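Good morning N.,

You mentioned wanting to compare the apo and holo forms, so I went ahead and generated the holo version with 3-methyl-2-oxobutanoic acid. This is what I fed in:
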Amino acid sequence: MKKVTVSGLLKKKQAGEKITSLTAYDASFAKMFDEQGVDAILIGDSLGMVLQGEDDTLPVTVDDIAYHTRSVRKGTARAFVIADMPFMSYATPEQSYSNAATLMAAGASMVKMEGGRWLCETIAGLNLRGVPVCGHLGLTPQSVHVFGGFKVQGREQSQADKLLEEAKALEAAGIQLLVLECVPASLGKAVSEALSIPVIGIGAGKDTDGQILVMHDMFGISANYMPKFSKNYLTETGDMRKAVALYIEEVQNGVFPSQEHSFE
Ligand code: KIV
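and this is what came out, ligand included:
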């Protein structure tokens, strides 16, 4: 079995093969997703909402992510493991170095940070110190109070142009993956075409280089609500392993996300 690496993910983009990813927070689900062939597993700060029952991701700590990263790493043999940097854990470059070190030591192969151009110095500094970085643009949930709710981003042309420029700046600074959340499908396509690195969409339409879903949404078991961009694969299959396999198949074949799961 060949382990997925960041260069393997890049090759998939270059070959036009879709990248599949899911969040996971423990060893058992990580093992299940890994065995079904998911390319990347994210220990997302979404755990604040789906595991801890919080209203948003802001209360999540570096220790929370490190704890779940250790569990996920133990369940993962093949997939690429990415750990989220929680709210305010990368407010300065120095802070990001020490917190990224904790998450890499816990078993992550890359860390993810939300934000645009202001992160460029931090990204370059992390790269120099051996830490690969995944960017996150669009609806960045740690900024929910700035947005005034969980709202689709980039609908106005000026916002879309700004987001595209931010994505290019992040790539130039050294990110090797980009998560793009809740933007119109046309913008998902434009960003994916403009960047050389893989763009993983969640609510960003069918034309990104890959897809990610929060596992609880994909199984339809999230406590509070089901986002429009997600799909309940468990109802359709009646079996968790089959649900994951169908999700992978539908992403690879371009069936998911359909228009129903995308924004205009
Ligand atoms: O925290 C998370 O799970 C995420 C995904 C929604 C991409 O950032």
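The mean pLDDT is 97.

Happy to go through it together on a call whenever suits you.

Best,
F.
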